[in-house]
Amino acid sequence: MKKLSITLFLLLFGVMLSHAQQVMYSSLKDLASGKGDTVTILQVQKRTKNQIYLMGGADYRISADDNNSLGRYLKRRCYAVQIDSTLYVNCKRMRYKKFRLGNWYAKALMVNGTVYYSAQPVGQVATENIIPDDAVSLGGEVGDAINASALIDSRVYYELNMETGRSEFLGHERMLQLLADRPDLKAQFEQETAEDAATMERYLIQLR
């Protein structure tokens, strides 16, 4: 009986811990200070390529079933969500220069107090780093369709300024600055030619 009680206690304690890992942040200030609201009913859904192509936006939909007011808050006003060990930022609240990054959430990494998130390339980032020159030159509806389809699988990292809330593209030059104190990684990165999210993530993880 005693063993059963201990087992039940550990199970309940484990459930409590798992619930405590769902945290919503309402603003950049709250995210920076780690002050958020703990909840237990959030669901994360990976959006399909068709959904992204037809409606745009980021890779993940975070919702709260049977709670419409919380669902609206998550979509429109929530700044970021931490679920277990994964951080998501609300792309509706993100901007790169004058460009919006759409609705829904993108995965992010917290590295030395700064947030880096993976999202579709927009603006100059898209035209210079992702979309082939021949696709851009087509123009019109055909060109737009090709460009949009090219972005479905393309991701880059943006660096979120934790004071201003502005986002900057994490490109080759900026990564070299981040690796200044890690000559081993810097030498390795200098051999890289790509600026896509997969490449950058390998180095961001090692800087954590």
Question: What descriptive keywords fit this protein?
Answer:
single chain, 208 residues, alpha+beta, eight-stranded antiparallel β-sheet, two-stranded antiparallel sheet, 10 helices, globular
Describe this structure in words.
There is one protein chain. The chain is of the alpha+beta class and 208 residues long. Helix content is 44%, strand content 24%. The protein has helices spanning 2-20, 28-33, 49-55, 68-76, 123-129, 133-138, 140-151, 172-178, 183-189, 197-207, and strands spanning 22-25, 37-38, 42-46, 60-64, 80-83, 86-90, 95-96, 99-100, 105-111, 114-119, 156-160, 167-169. It has an eight-stranded antiparallel β-sheet with strand order 2-1-5-6-9-10-11-12. The chain has a two-stranded antiparallel sheet with strand order 3-4. It has a two-stranded antiparallel sheet with strand order 7-8. Strand 7 and strand 8 (99-100) form a beta hairpin. The longest helix is centred in the first third of the chain and has 19 residues, at 2-20. The protein is globular. 25% of the residues are buried. Mean pLDDT is 85; it is low at 4-20 and 131-147.
Helix-strand makeup class:
alpha+beta
Average pLDDT reading: 85
Radius of gyration of CA atoms, rounded to a whole number: 20 Å
Helix fraction, binned, reads 40-55%
Strand content: 15-25%
